C-alpha cells in the first residue's frame, strides 16, 4: 500500500511540476507578445515620423515654388494696374472732349427706315 500511495504522491508532484512549467511558459509567451507589440508600435511610430518628414519636405518644395509663383503673379498684376492707370490719365481728357462734342453737336436726322404715314 505504501508503494501505491508513494506512486500517487510522485504522480501528483509530477503533475504539479508540469502545471508550474506550463504556467511559466504562458508567462514567457505573454512577455514575448507584449515585447513584440511594443517593438511593433515603436517601429510604426518611427515609420510614421519618417513619412511625415518626407511629406513636409515635398510640401515645402511645392508650396515654396507656388509662393514664388504667386509673388511673380502679384508683381505682374501690380504692373498691369499701373499701366492701365497711366493710360487712363493719359487719354481721359481727349475721350471726355470727344464724348462731350458728340453730346453737344446733335444733328437731327430722320432715320432711313422711317416711312411717311400720310
UniProtKB/TrEMBL annotation:
GO terms for biological process: synaptic vesicle lumen acidification. One of its GO terms (cellular component) is vacuolar proton-transporting V-type ATPase, V1 domain. Residues 14-26 have a biased composition (Basic and acidic residues). The keyword Chaperone does not apply. InterPro entries: V-ATPase_G. One of its GO terms (molecular function) is ATP hydrolysis activity. Residues 1-34 are annotated as: Disordered. V-ATPase is a heteromultimeric enzyme made up of two complexes: the ATP-hydrolytic V1 complex and the proton translocation V0 complex. NCBIfam families: V_ATP_synt_G. Subunit of the V1 complex of vacuolar(H+)-ATPase (V-ATPase), a multisubunit enzyme composed of a peripheral complex (V1) that hydrolyzes ATP and a membrane integral complex (V0) that translocates protons. V-ATPase is responsible for acidifying and maintaining the pH of intracellular compartments and in some cell types, is targeted to the plasma membrane, where it is responsible for acidifying the extracellular environment. This is V-type proton ATPase subunit G. It comes from Platysternon megacephalum (big-headed turtle).
